[in-house]
Amino acid sequence: MNGALGVAIAATFVWLGMVLAISFLEAPLKFGAPGVTLQIGLGIGRRVFRALNACEGVLAAAALAATLIHGDATAALVALLAATAMLAAQLLFVRPALTQRSDAVLAGAEGPRSRAHYVYVGLELVKVIALITGGVLLLT
């Protein structure tokens, strides 16, 4: 295994682990913790996801660049590009709607839950599948 391949594999699986830990473990558990109100949970969640998304951007760049440098990994590159596209869709199209809704809730507004949250989770699921696929392809 050369250095670029190792970096690609590491970046891919660290990215996958972060998404699984934050999106599918920390986020749902936070709202069930004693004393955590919706406003507190949203405030924490906004900071955590802002940090997660920044780390994801760095890991996506590292994984893509290392896969390109390694060469001979077209299928893995396509999977990593798909994961990166899901991240971009979340940041550009879904996150603004979630931010608008959380701003309103933090200001005291009530109303129906945002459907954008379900879109975000759907994109997370696709991203997880793409990262698993890309990581496994890099290992083979």
Automatic annotation (TrEMBL):
What name is this protein filed under? Transmembrane protein
Keywords, A to Z, come to:
Membrane, Transmembrane, Transmembrane helix
In its UniProt entry, the species of origin is given as: Mycolicibacterium vanbaalenii (strain DSM 7251 / JCM 13017 / BCRC 16820 / KCTC 9966 / NRRL B-24157 / PYR-1)
- Which parts of the chain span the membrane according to its record? 6-27, 48-69, 75-98, 118-139
Give yes or no: UniProt keyword Transmembrane helix. yes
